[in-house]
Predict the 3D structure of the following.
Amino acid sequence: MRSILSDLPERFQDPLYTVSIVVGSLLVGLLIKVVLATIIRGYTRREGYLLTQSITRHLSRPSSYFIPVLVLSFALPLAPLAPKPFEVMRRVVEASLTITFAWCLVKVVNVIEDLITHHYQIESGDNLRVRKLFTQLQFVRKLAVSLIIFIAAALVLMSFATVRKIGTGLLTSAGIASVIIGFAAQRSISNLLAGFQLAFTQPIRIDDVLVVEGEWGRVEEITFTYVVLRIWDQRRLVLPLNYFIEKPFQNWTRTSSQLLGTVFLYTDYTIPVEAVRDELQRIVRASTLWDQRTCMLQVTDSKEHTLELRALVSAENSSEAFDLRCEVREKLVAFVQQKYPGCLPKTRAVVEAKDHPFSLPNANVDKS
């Protein structure tokens, strides 16, 4: 390189040599990245490992920046620069190296998440332990990414002398600043602490079925400050973390996804309860939604005009329990209509017309 530049005037030799070192270092870094990516891609096609697939998907782009900058940081001392330009160049390269390395660390967190989520499946019906793990994993991942970004930003800023002086001055008033920030951000801090509590005590978990504010839905996401509930009709209910610490709510999958469902039927007093009980047994045995745990029919109330029959059935999860209840309700009503239409709810009245010459005394009139 020196021999090529020796023919140029002396004032152009050092800048061109510096540019050649920078460009050459970046090209060598890109070449190293391409070689590594080719090796990993070929190994993935041959073996089909999830780890190499995830590395290729997440780390391909950030490594395209990190490896060239890393090579440049090693080659930079060879550049013939004056002390001040060299210091500026060194600061820029160090800041770039820190940023790209932090980017790679964030993607490494995603690779680890891929490996864990592949090993544990959340789609099964009773997945309590998996949902516990996923809830903690989601919170820890967001915390780790936030810490990586925060530390990287701090390292970049503290590499400048001016920022270090400002930071030293701010430390002297840290007590007053912490009090002011505490009052100003007490809601955010309380939400962050609530996030830690939710992640590790777990009154709610990812994919839990909740009834909140009269809405039925599943926990879709838990962030540092709020929870996203996916409502059954595809709406999203967003609630602050403090809500689940301070207010009551229903969790239908707290210890198990299995659930009991009730169906109420109102009939006349003349209904043959045993026949309805046998029909309920026939309906649930023919249904693929029943988990064969519970099936019973009871007379739970006797009102002024009707009997209240309660059918109790069980299913593996809340969705199947809802569908099973609808199926049982529909078929029981059809059974009463077809087999015992006279046992549908009635209103009875006694009409007494003593003075009318053509009326019969104490005539009973049924009004259905």
Q: What stands out?
A: Residues 10-47 form the longest helix (38 residues). Residues 194 and 245 are 7 Å apart (CA to CA). The chain has a mean pLDDT of 78. The two ends are 106 Å apart (CA to CA).
